[in-house]
Amino acid sequence: MEHTLDKGLQNGLAFFYLLVALLNFGFAAYWYGVKKLAAAAIWAAVGALFLIHCVGYFAHLGWSLPFGIREAVDQATGPVVYTMLSIVGFIVLLVFRRFFVQPNIAWALLQLSLLIGGWAMTDPNFRDIVAKEDNVPITMLIYSVGFFTWAALYRAVQNDDRIARGEPVLEKVEDEKVLVWPDLVYTELIAMIIATFVLVIWAVLLKAPLEQPATSAKAPNPSKAPWYFLGLQEMLVYYDPWMAGVVLPTMIVIGLMAIPYIDFNRQGNGYYSFAERKFAVSIFLFGFVVLWVTLIVLGTFLRGPNWNFFGPFEYWDPHKVLPLNNVNLSQLFWLNMLHMPLDDFKVRFGNFLGPIIRELPGIIVVLLYLFALPPLLARTVMRPFFVRMGFVRFILLVTLIQFMAALPLKMLLRWTLNLKYIVAIPEIFFNI
Amino acid sequence: MAATDQTYRKQKTLDIVFAVSCILMLLSTFWMFWQDYDRQFKHVQRDFRDVEEAMNEHQMIAQLPSKEEVEAKRKAIADAKQTYESEHDKLRPRERELMALHDRKDNEYRGIKADFDSKMSLYNIAVEHVGKETNADLKKAPQKEADDLRKELFDPQTGLQKQLTDAQDALDKIDQQIKKDVTQPLDGPQQAVNQAEDNLKKLTASFDRLAKVTSQKRWKFGDLFRTLPILDAFESPTKIKQLWLPDLTIDYGGFKDVPRYDRCISCHLGIERGSFDHATLTRLTRTPDIISADINKAQARKKELESKDGSEEDIKRVDNTIQKLEKERDRANGMKARLDQARDILMARKNAGENLGFDPSDLPDKVKWLNMTPGQITQYAAHPRLDLFVDANSPHSMEKFGCTICHQGQGSATDFLLSAHTPADARQEEEWHKEYGWAHSHYWDFPMLSSRFTESSCLKCHHEVTDLIRHGSKEEAPKLLRGYNLVRENGCFGCHEISAFKAGREVGPDLRLEPQPALEYLTPSEQDKAKSDPLNLPGAYRKVGPSLRRIAEKTNQDWVRKWIQSPRGFRPDTKMPHFFGLSNNSKEALPEEQQKFPDAEIAGIAYYLMAESKGNLESDTTKKDNARKVLESRIADLQKVLKGDLLQDRDWKELTDACRRLADLGLMSVPAQANEINHLLTRQRQLQDRMQELRKREAALKAKPEAEELSADENKELSQAGGELDKVTKDLIDAGQITPLAKRITDEEGKTVDVPKKGDAAKGRKLFTEKGCMACHSHEGTTKAGDGVGVVQGEANFGPNLSRLAAKIAPEIAAKGELEEAKRRWIVQWVLNPTIYHPRTRMPITHLSPEDAGNVAEWLLSQRVTDWEDKGPEEPKAMDLVSLARLYLGKAPGFTRLDVENFLPPNTGELPGIPDDRLGNLPPDSDERKLNGPIKDDAEGQAKLKWYIGRKAINRLGCFGCHDVPGFETAKPIGTALNDWGKKDADRIAFEDADIFIRDNYNVVPVRNNPDDKSKPAADWHAKDGKQPYEKLYAEAVNHHRREGFLHQKLVEPRSFDFHRIRTWDDRLRMPQFRFARTTRHKNESDEAFHARQEFEEAEAREAVMTFILGLVAEPMPLKYLNRPAPDRLAEVKGHQVLEKFNCSGCHQIRPGVYEFKTSDEGLTFLQEAYKSSSSSFKKDHVFPGHNAWVGAPQTSADRLTVFGTHPKMDDTSYEDRRMLVVRLTDALRFTGTDRVTRNLPAASVVPIIPESLTVRADPWGGTFTELMTGYMKPREADPDKARSMLPPPLIREGERVQPNWLYGFLLNPPPVRPTNYMMLRMPKFNMSSEDARALVNYFSGVSRLTNPGSGVTSEYVDVHQHDEAYWQARTREYIKRLKGDKKYDERVKQMEPVWQDALKRQIAEAEAGLDAAKQAVKDAPEGEPRKQKQQDVDAREANIKKWKEELDKKNYDRLRKHWDEKGAYASDAYRLVTDRNLCLQCHSVGDVSAALPQGPNLDLTAQRLRPEWVRQWIANPDRLFGYKPAMPQNFPNDSLEYQNVFLGRPLDQVTAVRDVLMALPRVADMPGNRSRAPVAAGGTK
């Protein structure tokens, strides 16, 4: 294992910190320009901090993240922590959105991530994975999704305030008509040219990472789906392929198509707003950011050989074996609670009925979830929805949400009860 | 907001943004093009054109003719032309006159011809008209026209045709006149001009060609333009070059096989250009400045040496270097001048009007020097073996084979890194890292083979492996061959299957164990069955270790334990690997509770071996070896059932199987009884079959409604068969029983002999030294003076080193006080007939007498071992045995942990053991049965545990892979199959923590070989801090999980992959540690130097083994790529394997050495000298044209000569102070001298070769022992050739010499050929199968046909004409004619008269002797016709006798003379030659008539043994046909006419006559006249 940083890396880091420092100085200059001296001073100081990093690396002092911290981070992380953090972070973001949309806070978060990212790059294992050519888009994804989420919330909060004050929303204020030529087409042309330029440069600088030729005899380890499907692949940990690979994606597509028909809220159209569309925005962001994007990030950076979870600084050792002692619901019910052998069902009820009776507890749970829950919701917490949407639209909405919730629920069951399947009938490849 | 004309953004800003983005895009596009232009191979190709330019230029300059010569030649041309012109001028008036005439006549002729043609066409039209017209009237006009025209044309006097011929004749006449008057006189001058022009061409042709190339191939503007970025997309001179190999597909792991594209030649541009060799390319970089710098360096070095008192030799060497460099500098400095001169010459020629075909002003005006790194030089260099590879005419042309099929790597890549280059060593790796940023690529599964393993790939197509040897001794892939031999010798195939076939296709070499028992012990039909499937032939390799079936008769437990613990401790160069004391089972490596296990296990193994072999040797049935006991009792049980009832199918199968196995056991123990055992087994099978059949019938009858019974006859048959079956089974058991040595010692013929009493050690040593033991064994005892026997420093290690034998031979089985006797008994038996002890041994029967064997035994046992005091493993404690047995029992099928606790609780004292009721569930041959309780805490109880542990350990360690171990006859090899290991997926190899193990336990050294002398270790290659050296390349390979890294470490320390792992005792890795090199210590070598050398040699040997294993890739190649030798070559290839199997080359020289060297004027001068001295013998010689001993084969390449010869030695004295390599030719050498005369240096000439010019040196194959003995015999016989004649003969030309039938018989059972009292030793009888013998016979015939097509060996079989009556008649006719022609006929007849008289007398005497018997026959015959006939016979005899007596009285020999005239004269005179006391009889006996001093073979053997052609050539000139100067003289030299009164004819006729007699010897000697001429037995006068 490498313990020292080579010169090329240090120069690179120095360059990176220089850029970040300049960024901060620029930001400070902006605040100075608008006469907010305190902010200007703070950001200048932050810039200086980065500059120190820059100088240190240019001088090849070889600073690197202490091993203790790396170990601690590796120890602390795991799929549970990761997912919980992402959900909690999501909720905190929505609840304290007013805090987060302040430019200074957002900027501070960005700087923090850049600082930590820079430190983390001193670890060879982290570097190996993050710097892989085909993982670069994921890093870009993190920042771009972060930025756009922030930008949307920023506008939404502003609009909410305006609505509260009775002012027209920003979109209304800025509603200017522009000419197709030159305002639209010309800009589009420029955008196209710049996109081409960026792609060419990207292709030249980060060459396509060729690996060995495909063979049927040997699968790469880890075998990963294309990056945009890594969320789906993560689902495979918790669900059978027919569920994670067929049913859930189908539901996602149907759900996305169904949105316009389900949406009964006439407010919040054509402008950013959170207060007017709390439910819709939260559900969508949860589905997209938490259940899709964070899982992609998890799948890209933290899932290693054998689809095991690896801490960000951990070596991807293919020999690592994690305990897998998950049990099915039937086992929990019959064996652990009632002390009845599972093999007995087939003997007593035959090959067809046996498995079904064995899995009855799970089947009942699933049926309850799918069919008893919606009426219950309609009568209780979601009564206003039911009233406003009507039966069909309500059932559709609830079913879609149920399917969406199925993933975190199953995760929860796995982490708490080691539950493998709720219904497990391997005889006909039917597992839930 | 309403639409306005106002734009949203400022138009100007947008314009600027647009402009900037456009520029950026343009730049990015340029960058993209640049990236393409910047591709690595394009740089390489652009650089290469400089190399080409420089190469052409330098070559052109090298060919520069001297200016003066060119001038002279040109002047000659000019002169010749002038002469021609002046001659011409003289003739010009006449020429002009004649030409005018000619032109005039020509015009005339043309005019007539035009007329004729026109008229002819008109005539044809008219004739056509006539033909077409049907109206007779209308026909008339055209008819008339036609008639007129015809007249005009063909009128004999005035017709146009006549005019035409006349004109033609006139013209011809003038032409002739011109020729005579003008052209002919000018012929001479014209020829002179042509000649002069030719002369110039000869001088300058190659220079002109190169100059043309140089000027034309210079890089011109057009070329530059085409390679500019972007433009190079269209028809660029730089482009990817590739080879398409649709048949040599790449297998991407189970997908479709994909055609191979090799683009290596995109960068390796000079690969097929012979002139781009490494040295020449290097020279292109040696500018005068660089050379000067080198000179300065060398001078500095010299000064340093001088100031530090360096040795004179070193200083001289530096001086030499300086001189060389100075020469080189002068040459380099002179280049510019020579270039200018070249331009001058060419310009002058051009100006003189010569058409050069190019413009000399295009030539460069500067000498081009290149700046290339060593890497670039290699990149551009030609393949080093263009004779074998790449070149279109070579056997492996580039177009057919490509590159990656041999070298591996990614052929489709055009980038240094992506094509997966692999460095040769750590130094190169570092260079590459610097130069190209090289790093291990994990993405291509088959990276290029490091140059050290390139030979591996040969195995893909050369499945026989020995087909990589050319001329018998030149190894084309020496490393691979060495690896192959090491794998063979060390018996890797005992544990690892190396099979030739995969999915029905031949994919590699076949090294598999032979079946047990060996095929040759089975019945012929069983053998045929085993060989019936050509895709699954039985293996052919014997287990490499000795049989342990009778080990108790050889040694004892104590020794065996010490041996198993450390074989190399006892015998440093043994092949037996180490199983204990390794990295995973040495005391330090084991956890506390396992530390006693090694000793306990060793004790167990030793006990098991002894117990089982002892059982074999005692007839007490309770003590028999377990396997036999189990089988016998099972057979008895089942046969008992069969006697009473029908056997169930399963039992029936078990019975037949058990019988077969019992017989097999017998065949493996006492193959001498094979016939009997096979017979008994067949009989047993028949009886059992019949009984089972009857039982079935009985059952069928009983099943009927009214149950019937067998008939009385059948019942009787059943009971009889039952009785006989008992007897047969008992006989079978007895026949397969080993007879202990104490009861019987068997000699070579199978007869019982007495064990000799105490022998004479001194005699024993002499016998050991002389009788051939040292061809395979060595013994330190022979290196010490004493015993009145010469000192011999033998280094043979084909068989074990016997120095410490005395400590090993101590039979366990010997009774008290009888030990010495038992020891002697074993050795005597081993020497007399080793197959008794070890049926599959390769040790031959030595033909020693029992007394001699006793003497050898005495000496061997008297060599006390003083330098070996191994303590050996400790005696295991009861508790250790129990713990180990518990471990094994816990893993036995059907036993649980609880059982283990119950049966073998971890206590000392009495253990319950396995109770009887559990035994019932175990299979009959279960090992656990031995643990039947109770197990007491005494010797017997421990014996049970030891037996159990020993058996389990043997099973785990796979001892039976090399040894025949009783009880493991059907065990399967334990190792992983190797036949596709070479492409094993590295991901499937468990590297574990080997990298850390290496880091911690070895001294990692950058490179192994000394860069200046690759055959020596590098300076830092030695142990450091007790850590052995380890090459960095392999440490890296382990780090990067490359298969060669794993393999290397597996061979270095096979168990190291257990490092840091927690393993139970029996789960630890099992592969033992081999040492392949078997390095022996040199005299006076220090410990340190020895160990360093040992490690170095071991590393090289290991690499050889790796080369072989990495080549086992099991890639099926298309048939057309497989090397399928022609029959003769195949015979050579296969025979080579057999020769090596039996170490024939230990005694015999089998093939001459091969020496290939580049010719130079100096070298040729030496050859001419050799020819001069050799030619003194030519007068005496008979020359056999076409035979390669006299006439050399044409040389295959123009610039070098290949010499075949023996006895190479460096000669410092004879050749003008030059050190020369001197070789005695075995084949004639044809060479063209400096004077362009082609000469033949016949065989037996001595040829000097300049050592520096050698390109190939492969020394003769075999004869080590012979050479050893010639040294040993020096005190007795100073002449080495004479000494050699008493030693095993060379087998060079053996195929030409002997008849295959005879050789076959001889190999299987060799009788003495030469007089035993003259020869030092006798050919032993090898334990060889008939197939081996046949392979050898075919080998020798095949070799002769291949190497000497003129030898007359056209097939394996021989047709001996001398056996035909007609042959003799023809010869006699010729001979009588010759006698009469020479007027010697009457004289001969006169000479013959006494002979005839004697013959007649003899005839009469013989007839009379037979008369009495005939008369008696008449009396005995019954009355009637028979008696009459007998009486007639008697009458005839009497009449004959009467007639002959009359003839004798009258001295009338007409009848005999007539016979002599027709059939006898030739034979009779020839026979006189043979029996002349001055000739053959001096050294050879003929039949019963013995020579005065017999040295050669009895000539009676000749007719059966030798080929007629060879005998003739041999008698004609023995010298030419032998590896050394034979003792046989040339009796009939070509320049003398001796023995004319004995046999009339030229010497060669005499030779032929002698040959004819020899080829028909018993017959000719029995001819009437010759019997009287038989030489007096012994002691005749000369």
| Oligomerization state | heterodimer
| Class per helix and strand makeup of chain B | mainly alpha
Structure class of chain A: mainly alpha
- First CA to last CA of chain A: what distance? 43 Å
Biggest interface and residues each:
A-B, 29 and 30 residues
> Can you tell me the overall shape of chain A?
globular
User: Could you estimate the helical fraction of the residues of chain A in percent?
Assistant: 55-70%
Question: Gap between N and C termini of chain B, in Å?
Answer: 144 Å
Give the strand order of the largest sheet of chain B, numbering strands 1, 2, ... along the chain: 19-16-15-14-20
Q: What is the number of E strands of chain A?
A: 2
Q: Describe the strand arrangement of the main beta sheet of chain A, using strand numbers.
A: 1-2
Count of DSSP H/I helices of chain A: 17
Please provide the count of β strands of chain B.
21
Tell me the major beta sheet of chain A.
2 strands, antiparallel
Report mean pLDDT of chain B, rounded to a whole number.
Answer: 89
Topology:
The complex is a heterodimer of chains A (432) and B (1582).
Chain A: H1 7-33, H2 37-58, H3 67-76, H4 79-95, H5 97-100, H6 103-120, H7 124-130, H8 136-165, H9 170-173, H10 180-205, H11 230-238, H12 241-262, H13 278-302, H14 329-337, H15 344-358, H16 360-379, H17 383-417, E1 424-425, E2 430-431
Chain B: H1 11-37, H2 40-62, H3 67-132, H4 136-154, H5 160-216, H6 221-226, E1 243-251, E2 257-262, H7 278-285, H8 288-307, H9 312-351, H10 374-380, E3 389-390, E4 396-397, H11 398-401, H12 404-407, H13 426-436, E5 469-470, E6 474-475, H14 478-490, E7 501-502, E8 505-506, H15 524-530, H16 557-565, H17 567-570, H18 597-617, H19 626-644, H20 649-669, H21 674-703, H22 712-735, E9 745-746, E10 752-753, H23 761-770, H24 805-808, H25 819-832, H26 850-862, H27 878-891, H28 897-903, H29 916-919, H30 939-957, H31 994-1001, E11 1002-1005, E12 1028-1031, H32 1032-1039, H33 1043-1052, H34 1087-1110, H35 1127-1141, H36 1144-1147, E13 1149-1151, E14 1153-1158, H37 1161-1174, E15 1200-1215, E16 1218-1225, E17 1229-1232, E18 1238-1241, E19 1246-1249, E20 1254-1258, E21 1261-1262, H38 1264-1272, H39 1280-1285, H40 1294-1297, H41 1300-1308, H42 1330-1347, H43 1365-1381, H44 1385-1420, H45 1425-1450, H46 1454-1474, H47 1502-1505, H48 1508-1516, H49 1547-1559, H50 1561-1565, H51 1568-1573
Parallel strand pairs in B: 3-4, 11-12
Antiparallel strand pairs in B: 1-2, 5-6, 7-8, 9-10, 13-21, 14-15, 14-20, 15-16, 16-19, 17-18
Helix pairs in contact in B: 2-5, 3-4, 3-5, 3-9, 8-9, 14-34, 16-18, 18-27, 18-30, 19-20, 19-22, 20-21, 21-22, 23-26, 25-26, 27-30, 31-32, 32-33, 33-34, 35-42, 41-42, 43-46, 44-45, 46-49, 48-49
